[in-house]
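Students often ask why inverse folding is considered easier than folding. One informal answer: many sequences map to the same fold, so there is more than one right answer. In these notes we will look at a single instance of the problem. The structure comes first.
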């Protein structure tokens, strides 16, 4: 076989390889890293154009992002976009029920201890000492907002709204209202409280009973510096709570003004919720009316204050989403009772002196504490209904 024939065969082989290369490229069957045809073509003397270099720091294009990535991006940017645009976060979104109820240092799943015992709980309880922090509120946990978020865009105060700048005048502003509705009545069968002006709002725990049983780590009225107000709230419980309540809530450091959040002072012996500062950053506090948030609103609503700007409806809507008839945390708590096979609110093998609280030592004390701070305690009727839904 002569040299001419060898050259012809080699040329035919290269042409055949190039045809196959084009076919593979058209079918998108080549590996992503380096094309064999390109290498062989280069070996045959063809010029190869290197890929254009990307500028340093330039973002990589992604023409086909996954649906999950799109969902994540859109959800994460909603609040940021609202803040960047100079607006404020909506008071009507379901801000209280999307996050998980959480112990400050442990996972969901702890239970309770009754508030009629000694001031300091047994130190044998897990995770309570390490969970202390002042200004702690009973509220489902959420991830903290961006560190550079400004309170002016995250709270309901507009730049045109001015509030008193000294503590005495501020407390006078908050407590100058006149009762316009009677005290609620209690249904002897369900234990629910009924408010004539707002029949959908039916808690079964009064503000006074919540405080007496042990809530907010004993620190609901502890001193707190608000960035929005520029004032440190201190001793405001003296002007917010009625005299007969104050007489029962003694010593105040046990029930109201503990210097730091103490989970052992809670009825259920567990920490839950977030700090007032976190509530402030999230835009959940309407400083026009109640600088300490939900529970302070409940105190004043209980005592007969009514607001005509939609604030009462906003707070009741939050309550409904948390512990109302179909509230998320109420349903979660009752579901745990069923999952653990507990059919009675007194069904427990514990030797606790308080039989009424024994079931709560078995079924998620953290959610129990959260529900208590939203004015709800599990009843036998609710538990029976929950079991009935499983049939």
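Output (designed amino acids):
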């Amino acid at each position: 076989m002569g040299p001419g024939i060898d050259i012809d065969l080699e040329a035919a082989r290269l042409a055949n390889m190039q045809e196959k290369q084009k076919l593979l490229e058209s079918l998108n069957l080549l590996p992503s890293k380096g094309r064999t045809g390109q290498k062989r073509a280069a070996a045959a003397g063809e010029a190869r154009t290197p890929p254009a270099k990307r500028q340093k720091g330039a973002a990589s294009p992604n023409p086909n992002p996954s649906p999950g990535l799109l969902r994540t991006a859109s959800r994460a940017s909603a609040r940021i976009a609202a803040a960047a645009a100079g607006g404020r976060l909506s008071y009507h979104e379901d801000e209280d029920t999307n996050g998980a109820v959480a112990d400050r240092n442990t996972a969901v799943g702890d239970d309770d201890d009754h508030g009629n015992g000694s001031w300091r709980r047994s130190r044998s309880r897990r995770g309570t000492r390490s969970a202390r922090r002042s200004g702690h509120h009973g509220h489902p946990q959420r991830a903290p907002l961006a560190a550079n978020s400004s309170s002016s865009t995250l709270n309901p105060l507009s730049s045109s709204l001015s509030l008193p700048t000294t503590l005495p005048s501020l407390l006078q502003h908050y407590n100058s209202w006149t009762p316009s509705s009677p005290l609620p009545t209690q249904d002897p069968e369900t234990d629910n409280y009924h408010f004539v002006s707002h029949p959908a709002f039916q808690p079964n725990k009064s503000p006074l009973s919540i405080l007496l049983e042990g809530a907010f780590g004993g620190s609901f009225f502890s001193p707190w510096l608000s960035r929005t107000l520029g004032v440190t709230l201190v001793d405001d419980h003296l002007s917010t709570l009625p005299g007969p309540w104050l007489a029962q809530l003694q010593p105040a450091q046990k029930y109201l003004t503990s210097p730091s959040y103490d989970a052992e002072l809670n009825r259920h012996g567990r920490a839950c919720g977030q700090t007032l500062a976190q509530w402030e950053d999230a835009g959940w506090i309407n400083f026009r009316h109640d600088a300490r948030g939900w529970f302070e609103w409940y105190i004043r609503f209980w005592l007969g204050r009514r607001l005509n700007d939609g604030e009462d409806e906003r707070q009741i809507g939050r309550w409904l989403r948390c512990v109302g008839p179909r509230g998320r945390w109420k349903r979660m708590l009752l579901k745990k009772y069923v999952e653990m096979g507990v059919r009675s609110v007194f069904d427990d093998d514990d030797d606790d002196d308080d039989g009424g609280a024994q079931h709560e030592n078995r079924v998620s004390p953290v959610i129990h504490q959260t529900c208590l701070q939203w004015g709800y305690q599990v009843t036998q009727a609710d538990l029976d209904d929950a079991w009935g839904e499983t049939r």
